[in-house]
Amino acid sequence: MIKKLFQKMLANSGKSYQIDDRIPTQLIYSTLYNRMIMLIRGFLKTGKKVFIGSNTRILNSSNIVFGQNVTIGSHCEIDGYASKKIILGDCVKIGCYSKLLSTSHFSKFGKGLTMGNNSAIGDFTHFGAPGGIEIGNDVIMGSYISFHSENHNFTDTSKLIREQGTSSKGIKLGNNIWVGAKVTFLDGCVVGNNSVVAAGAVVNGVYPDNVVIGGIPARVIKTLA
After folding, report:
1. C or N terminus of the chain, fewer CB within 10 Å?
2. What angle do CA 116, 206, 99 make, to 5 degrees?
3. Could you tell me what percent of the chain has a pLDDT over 70?
């Protein structure tokens, strides 16, 4: 009975997979209990139906748009101080020990982050979002991923680099993308729809739809039919 109930809950949250019959009932009970605690915590922190792990900080939640069934893991920090709304779509998941930094310096109010429906990212993610990060729908990402949406200016040799300010183009990922672990996205990069980014890649260019990219710097390795 509990497995059927859990399966129905998954279907209502947009998850289409079938539960493995070997999954013990005890694990399902434990998961449901933890989700209930996360939901209570999320409501207390945001006043909304959000699942939030322990020791997670949500700053300026009034500037964050939460979709249905958003999950933010434990020990995260989500900075909602941005010039645009932070948008987390339906069934978005952000892994534990992740950090969203919208405004990195008082000299520049950052743009922030948008993540589309059914997009998820693993533990230990760094969203450096002063220049803006856009992630589409159905993007699945591994752990230890970093986004850096601004660059330091350095061409004026008469000044210290730290005194020359920054420039930003933003980062954009399309829809239906699989990103492997430990990928670095640099300012100005664009990844097309229906793509795969190999683990460990440094992504700094503009890439078309339907490709596999990888390497340092990333290049097109394969075109998907």
Report:
1. C
2. 45
3. 94
Measuring CA to CA, which residue among 116, 104, 118, 106 is closest to residue 148? Answer: 104
The radius of gyration of the chain from alpha carbons, rounded to an integer in Å, stands at 19
Per the structure block, which two tokens stand in for 184? 């670095």
Question: Which member of 105, 126, 148, 152 is catalytic?
Answer: 152
152: annotated active-site residue:
yes
* Global pTM value: 0.90
Residue 61 vs residue 7, higher pLDDT: 61
Residues 220/213, Cβ–Cβ less than 8 Å? yes
Q: What is the mean pLDDT of residues 118-141?
A: 97
pLDDT confidence of residue 65: 97
CA distances from 198 to 22, 152, 193, 202, 210 (A): 31, 27, 15, 9, 14
